[in-house]
């Protein structure tokens, strides 16, 4: 069996999905997602210019050897662009493998460990009361878990994950007005003073059963993060996400000395080498890698197994920039993983998105039910894809009030 060709598509309804289709001499094809938010043309170019030509003639069933070929073969390896491109190839090869076996991928991993995988939505509010309404909206949809972000009184502009307009229950970050990013102003002191009390009010309003998650988005210094984690401990968060800049992993030792709040980290990690020490030292409770830019199902399964040894659960990244293909790849792992925790999931199910990526995967009462179709369980309509083109977009950058650049 041989790979005969591959195509890369960039575009989609309201998003620049990077979709890879690998064809074989037996008519079976595989699909993968290489979307890297707001840098979408780069993994597409990496695939087209460097990787696809090398794949032609290879046996697509040898997904492990092909992964090693891509990773070890690139002297300048890792990084989100290369790993997103590898991830798309790896997903597509698992898709082919599943189709050949006539099984969904979760069966090839070891079968189902659960009927449905719990997901969380993004609740957002221009202010706390607005956020309360957004949480209620998601509870009415059946969600058991929500990430909560709200505007901070006195903050000069909206902060991460916060809608500027009241009543906007869904918040999508990419601004398609051009490449040059908007500027948001961040004020750590105002955030530190306001947010713990706001989280406590949310707990009081919705009771003990709601799983509440909150994302700091790398904005706090290590000592501030420790203070914040200690302050929010009585809220009983399901997790506190990215409290510190991801590069400074020692920061979590300080945080752990001061708080037992569960910590979730890893959405910007690209490989097991970015998180193996955090997992082995048990400094995190949830690992947040994405199957896309952590290099595909093959390496992420290794991360999940390492995490399982240390009682770290999964909480894969699932921002709206992930196409239904990588969400399906994650759903396949989620169905199997003995140490599954939760999945970030923003409903992509617009009629346009469903037409481009038909599938039988379904969300019901806050649980994701994986399709039993062979492979990833998602198809790709190339005719539909012709409707879409790449649209330049950006996410904001962040400065302090005096102009100092801060972490987005
Ligand atoms: Mg996050």
From TrEMBL:
InterPro entries: D-mannonate_dehydratase-like, DgoD-like, Enolase-like_C_sf, Enolase-like_N, Enolase_C-like, Mandel_Rmase/mucon_lact_enz_CS, Mandelate_racemase_C, Mandelate_racemase_N_dom. One of its GO terms (molecular function) is magnesium ion binding. SUPFAM superfamilies: Enolase C-terminal domain-like, Enolase N-terminal domain-like. PROSITE patterns: MR_MLE_1 (PS00908), MR_MLE_2 (PS00909). One of its GO terms (biological process) is amino acid catabolic process. It comes from the Bacteria. Residues 128-262 form the Mandelate racemase/muconate lactonizing enzyme C-terminal domain. PANTHER family: D-GALACTONATE DEHYDRATASE-RELATED, STARVATION-SENSING PROTEIN RSPA. Belongs to the mandelate racemase/muconate lactonizing enzyme family. GalD subfamily. NCBIfam families: ManoateDhtManD, PRK15072.1. This is Starvation-sensing protein RspA.
